[in-house]
Amino acid sequence: MFKGLFKKSKSTSNSIIAPIDGEIVALEEVPDPVFSQKMMGDGVAIKPTSGKIVAPVDGEVVQVAPTKHAIGIRAEDGTEILIHVGLETVSLNGEGFTVDVNTGDQVSVGQPMLTVNLEYVKENAKDIITPIVITNSNNSDKEYTVTDQKDSKAGETILMTYE
User: Fold this and answer.
1) Where would I find the PTS EIIA type-1 domain in this sequence (predicted)?
2) What is the pLDDT of residues 78-87, one digit of tens each?
3) Active-site residue list
4) Taking the model in full, what pTM does it have?
């Protein structure tokens, strides 16, 4: 009758932590329809103020773009997150990016993954705005809530929660 009465219940709520310092903006504000119309999935974007990108969740690196501008991570619960640094940055062919992780690596929240030369990207790409997208959100019954905070601190600020 009292079995399980004093066990701590596991919350179904999960969080995605900011991977970069900057100004948090709605995904709809990204000046690229692939992101703003959520074709790749739900999410949020950050206008970065620093070039250090850290892991937003505990999980596995499932993709590092050959051009180093994007990293995909699968969280322990199966949520797939894409961090896409800037717009039209694929054309930089990796210039201005230093990757610290490889596909298959296990990462923890706050672990450094990528360093970006923001000045170089500002001068040579369309925009430095960085979408953080849940690429499998369209195939999920999870509900996503974006923070109402305006500024992010890498590895600390909760960007999104989901259940």
Assistant:
1) 32-136
2) 999 999 999 9
3) 84
4) 0.91
